[in-house]
Amino acid sequence: MSAMIFHPSLYDRRQYHTSYWAAQNPAPHLEALQADIQTDVAIIGGGYTGLSCALHLSRDHGLETTVLEAGDIGWGASGRNAGFNTLPACKLAAAEVFRRWPEAEARAFFEAQREGQALVYELAQDEGFELGACGQGIFQVAHSRGALAELDEEGRWLRQAGIPCQTLSREAFAEIGHDGPDQFGALHMTEGGGIDPMQLTLGLATAARRHGARLYARSPMQQWRKDGAWHVLQTPQGQVRARQVVVATNGYRDGEEPAGLRHRALPAISNILVTAPLSEAQWQAIGLNNLSPMSDTRMLVTYYRRLPDNRLLLGARSDTWGDPQRDARMQAALHALIARKFPDAGPLAVDYFWRGLVSVTRKLVPSWGRLDDDPSVLFTLGCFGSGVNTMPWMGRTLARAIAGQPLSAREQCAVFRNLPGRLPSRAWQQRLGLQLAYLHYGLQDRLA
Question: Which residues form the signal peptide (predicted)?
């Protein structure tokens, strides 16, 4: 059993988080598993990875597939992120990716990221569900003059990797993005944009069920054992026997795991608020006139977007416990970030505030693979807060691997291979490491 490293409320699947997305998209009622069943593939986790894997296994490969979700569908990060269909999903600069891996492998990684971004729209079109897509690409906003120079360098490497992008001066970005004392220009990656993440989650779930996958909510896997070639997964009221298992829990790793996967991923808390709808006068004071997602270049990143119904969404990391009794303090910190970016905004009423977990690893890039000591167990690890474009693609890749399909150079590129290094085993050690990292990042941001 993996330890919960944050406040228990973050792992309480009985409580559905009152996010903006959940309010717009009530989750469908799915039954809990209440029987003993057998299946070709059992998937632990009903987020983007698990749902996409189930959809592709059922639709494209005709394999019997069962998804076990500990909460309701959309309970986790897939249902309550900021809805940025953007790239890349890593904590490395593009130049560092090219330095760590051969050029062909680095190119394949960025091609995979671009492919994953496009897959989100393709799945919605093919399966007939809405996405709430808006904006054109993403803006990475320089928080200092030095950061703009670094963004210009990043853009050169991204263009070498085939990612369409351009650097904008402070004046040019002010015309199409926003002005203010906290922007010194931006890098505009012109593909992708904003989506409604709950619509993507529920769309994948509906499509997977329509093509024959079995989805069970409120069915946490509590015990895992082997019986010959079969995996036996025990839930509170049922049992699944499967030939192969996909571990698709990502940041929420508080359940049973094979020894090879333990302490490989570190959850990090992300905090998001969404304001009440703003008037035209308020938007003029803020100066944000673009529906494309935006994030700044700080190590402790702030991300924000204007929503189609004229609300402002803003999120940030830094919290390392997640106690609901500290909600007011965290909201005050987010309001301070708004004031720094948009000093003329004035007080803004907040309709929604929530938090959730993203997944980071020591490898600093996403990973997928099979366990060395049991190739019938497949996994994904780490999306670094960019799961929208990465995890549906990972789910499809896992499905193709399970079905024995030849994998593309992008799917099997070296960047994705190998497990990340292990983290300290104790929860307090992991939390302390995160706290020290945030102190370091905060110092770097102040000195930039």
Answer: none
